[in-house]
Amino acid sequence: MAKPGIRPPAEILPVRMFEGVFIILAVLSGSLYLPYIFGSNWMLNSLAAMKSSFPGLSGFVSWYYSGALVVMGLAPLWKYFLSSVLSLAIIAAAVLLIARKPARPARTR
Q1: Within a domain: 17
Q2: Is residue 72 domain-resident?
Q3: Residues in CB range of 20: below 8 A, 6 or more apart
Q4: What is the pLDDT of residue 45?
Q5: Residue 1: is its pLDDT beyond 80?
Q6: What is the pLDDT of residue 17?
Q7: Which of 86, 83, 91, 88 is nearest to 24 (CA)?
Q8: pLDDT one-digit tens code per residue, 50-72
Q9: Which residues, including other chains, have CB under 8 Å from residue 107's CB and lie 6 or more apart?
Q10: What is the distance of C-alpha 62 from the center of its chain?
Q11: Does this model's pTM top 0.85?
């Protein structure tokens, strides 16, 4: 691991670039399916089971049901569009987090 303020060797830079690419692709593939996972029957059934176990979650479960049922009731093209937009937002946030500069420059001694 390189110390702050010291450039890493040139041999490591391509490896770090591929590491970032793999992380971004993993986030992309995961985020494309998030709406389908959150709206799936097993997820909604598990939330209903949690509601019976923990009565304090009834407000959250009702809110979640109302949103998930509206989204899952859309036409398939709109669901695909919404999942793509959600994925784009998650990828943009991940890229900004990965490629951000340090808050303050490291002091060299």
Answers
A1: no
A2: yes
A3: 98, 99
A4: 84
A5: no
A6: 79
A7: 91
A8: 888 888 888 888 888 888 778 77
A9: 5
A10: 23
A11: no
Q: Show the domain range for 37.
A: 28-98
Contacts of 28 (CB under 8 A, 6+ apart): 87, 91
- Number of structural domains in the chain: 1
Q: Is 48 inside a domain boundary?
A: yes
Tokens of 11: 């041999």
> Is the per-residue pLDDT at 76 higher than 80?
yes
Tokens of 46: 């598990």
Centre a 10 Å sphere on the Cβ of residue 35 and count the other Cβ atoms it contains.
Answer: 20
SS3 category, 40? coil
The answer as to whether 59 is a domain residue is yes
| pLDDT score for 26 | 86
**Tokens (6 digits) for 106:** 């490291």
Dist. CA 62–CA 59, nearest whole Å:
5
